[in-house]
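Retro notes - structure team

What went well: the batch runner handled both jobs without manual restarts.
What didn't: labels got mixed up in the shared folder, which is why I'm recording both outputs here explicitly, each with its sequence directly above its tokens.

Job 1
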Amino acid sequence: MWTITAKHLLRSKVRLCSAHISANVQRNKTFPCVSQLHFSRGQHSAPVYDQAAQTETMIQHLEVLDAQRFVCVHWKDGGQSLYPYVWLRDNCQCPQCFLQSAKARKLPIEDLDVNTGLEKVNLYNGNKVSIIWPDEHQSEFDAEWLKKRCFSKEARVEMQEELFLPEHEYWGSALKIPTFSYKDVLNCDQTAYNWLCSLRKVGIVLLDGAPVKQGELVTLGKRIGYMRHTFYGYTWQVQDKVDANNVAYTSGKLSLHTDYPALQYPPGVQFLHCLKQSETGGESEVVDGFHVCNKLREQNPEAFRILTSTQIDFTDTGIDFCDFSLQSKQRIIELDQNGELLRINFNNATRDSVLNIPAEKVQPFYSSLKEFVSLMNSPENTFCFKMKPGQVVTFDNWRILHGRRSYQSGAEVSRHLEGSYLDWDVVMSRLRALNAKLQPPN
């Protein structure tokens, strides 16, 4: 997926990154291998670099817009890109300014001249831009590196999609759960990559053929990076327990919920490994929460507004890995800075009786929440399946609400799932690393 995106990005026409800037154009002499420009910092014309025809070149010529403080790259495919002086200086890739082994900037912002000018610009073979700054420091930029970082809206959107994979495939009761071999996920990079891409896009993936033994999720977690340690441990056992410290550790019905909204930063991804399944009952229920949120926004904008603006208290108290007393404030529907769906925070069991809102807003809040939950439980939005021993369900805990039908408990454990968490930062890190590893060399 990312390989295709990257290739498309390099092929696509990157348009002019801002409104047309009129300027007087002066042409310099064309050099066989390099075109140069010398100009005074007070000059306001826009000299253009011509490049001799090269079959492999990406850049046709460079244009310096000194009054606007841009270097304009004219690509051979006909597109244009504007690069501010200050950004070019800040992102110098030389060893003095950038640590390649860590892919980290060394240049302190304190040493950055935000009003820097240019002394000289060279274009080499249509693929490398060299800049000499007023303090005689030299920076070099590859054409491919520059093009991927163009400031046009289209290029910025494509880069963000490549980095974060924001595309979602919404679903309801007709879901076809993507399924992969557990063994192949552990041993094949391509399968592991496909699994995580599907997890990101669909929100839920089933892995088949895992050994039916406790502790296997640790192996799966290490395939990605590391697991999230919580007050319930690195892994936790979902089974009927005496004096249960969590409603999941009973045999009763679990209503649809996301895990751990009592944490200020709830885990992003959850694994559940089926070790033993009850003969009757115990079916899993899942809902695409983002799909339901979109329906709520269409059908009742006011309810959507209330749930995205009202902070609700969540609490979780008990003893497990250690004793704990958690308290958090969450919006049940969390939006990002662009107003897009980011996370659902809802667990009715841990929703606190403390409600820090004015009394007159209580009834509208409950009415909004009830409509949201009714949409979740609608048969057209709910998918039901029964896990088998050796299956691992992996899902997006920020997006997918999950529940369980009741089952018959007995003298012995009749149903046993082992669970664990990971953060999305860790999962996305592995996704990007696998993508880089699987991409063919240029």
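Job 2
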Amino acid sequence: MAAEKDTDVNKGDRRGTVCNVVISQESETGGSGDGRPPIIFNPDFFVEKLRHERPEAFTELVLSNITRLIHLPGAEFSQLLDEEPKMPNATAAGGFFRSFNFLKRKDKGVVFGMPLTEEGIAQIYQLIVFLSKNLHVEGLFRVPGNSLRQQTLREQLNSGADIDFSSGDFHPNDVATLLKSFLGELPEPLLTQRHLHAHLKITELSLFDDLGNKTSLPDKERQIEALQLLLMLLPTANRSLLKLLLDLLYHTAKQQHKNRMSAHNLALMFAPHVIWPNNMNATDLQENLKKLNSGMAFLIKHSQKIFRAPVYLREHARLQFADTSMIHSKDDLELLSVGGSPFMSAWKRSAARVRSDSDSHAEEALRELYRHVTHHMPNSAKKKKLIRQLGKQSTPGTPVSENTTPTSKKHARSRSFGGLIKKKVLGSQPAADRRGKENISCDPVS
């Protein structure tokens, strides 16, 4: 009876840890104060919704922004376009933020040397929970454990057993070494081989001086943004385990005054198992070794940020499922400055399909678009053409009509962006009402 009680307590602790992992995705983790569990708000809800309901639009959006930040030649870019492999036993409606629920259950099956599965991650999660309670051990992940105890633990994990770490049969160094062995025996690195070149390019992102010259100082903000995007393209199982692992290493590094393991030291221990490709020859490895190790250290240091979606991605995803055609964030406007990007095309198509309940939305959108064109796009023939098109769609009092020369009457079949917006808003109203409303003046956007 006592053993059964201990097992139940152990499982309860694991469920609690799972909850903490999910809650720690954001800093706002306060409870209600009345004994009830805190409400978990997921700010990336619409991003995940877009991923699963409109995967092509999601991938197009993420890739267009990755190429905005780093340069990937054709061959390297095509690697990111590879179809994501389906995770065995994963449900069709599953996602990254839902996937932590599978840690509550496990099915029997060999986990070492096999492709990642939900069941395998659930088994390995036992190691992570135990290690998270022993971060004070000096030399954790550096000092090797006992090989016989590791073999016993490996067999138990492969059999699908619940490990009773409270018995004291295993030392933290045994568990830490076995965790590294599991990662090293995966068929491919946790970060996948097809993302290797992108990770190398991210480590090269640096700041520019006032004259536009590249400096040697890393641009951490752009590196974090690029990683946020790139990690969204990982297979679900890889991303789930990576989040659990980096959380563990992050908190290990925070206690380096006890365990003597800094983020740099941990990176040296885990880079070969997480990011090094299996087929890289010695020459290429030597050339990129510093980048790979520094990239791993960066992942550890910023693990609490890189699994969040960028703000503009959240807003764009929300707009895909909202009844509005307005742009609400500065980040969205900055994103639109990439002329001809897939995002711009997707935004135009989605805005043309959106229904609006008043004609003011059309004028608001025209003003926002005009401000973007005049202030964010470089001077070019394309910019002049867009301004002329916006002038044709403007009404008296708008900044578009005030800053453009008179143009000829718009052709009835014009399909300009402004025309599509007005057609959607005003198309179903009587002609007399439309003429009356079109004479309402609008103040320029501040």
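One thing worth noting from job 2: Residues 6 and 166 are 9 Å apart (CA to CA).
We'll revisit the folder naming next retro.
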